[in-house]
Please model this.
Amino acid sequence: MSKNTDFVTSCPLTKVQKIVGGKWKIVILWYLSVGPKRFGQIKRTFPDITQAMLTKQLRELEEDGFVHREVFKEIPPRVEYSLTATGENFVPILRSMYDWGEVHLAPAEQ
Amino acid sequence: MSKNTDFVTSCPLTKVQKIVGGKWKIVILWYLSVGPKRFGQIKRTFPDITQAMLTKQLRELEEDGFVHREVFKEIPPRVEYSLTATGENFVPILRSMYDWGEVHLAPAEQ
DNA sequence: CGGGATCCGAGAAGATACTG
DNA sequence: CAGTATCTTCTCGGATCCCG
Model:
């Protein structure tokens, strides 16, 4: 606010990018957009993410208010992740990005 | 294509994120959406980007077909950056992200 | 089962100096 | 003016081991 270059960091675009800029964030959100998922389900869906990374990204998404984490006190433990209202509101943007990518990025390019 | 986990890397969302995932990419695109800009203009607009980083990000955006680079053979040299048709097509998504951020991310949070 | 804690390498990002 | 070339720093993401 004091420095006049802060219009960059205060730009909504910058904030959004910081939140969903993680390597796996948007695909996780995309996956959760079809319904709540258990930790193991997500992990099996994205085998290339390590548990540690998956936990980290989910926690960050939780802190940013995109994802809700529900712990069921059972044996064995069970944890479900779902989108919050904020997260749901972001899905249309993901969808438009998805559609845009399909149209403008040739599958076999690069 | 061979491994069944490639649906992740082949996901349009993943591709889009790779392209605009750079720290400054989307704000640069956002800035260019108002019209062609010279290198020096961009640099002065974002003083926190080093020349090297700015050059790199612009070249990557150029390689990905989002930005057009026009070199004028003058003394002193002059280089103008502008959005390609693809880049222009992406602007509405930036705009929706911008609007979404304004609504859902409180200015004073965190 | 769903993590936490720690260590580590690669690549992103920053600082600085030089050039056509 | 608009870069290039290094060098350094730092953050992200990955691997591994341990825990309730």
Notes: The domain at 22-104 of chain B is CATH 1.10.10.10 (Arc Repressor Mutant, subunit A). Chain B touches chain A at residues 5, 8, 10-17, 20-21, 23, 26-27, 30, 46-48, 86, 89-90, 92-94, 96-102, 104-105, 107 (CB under 8 Å).
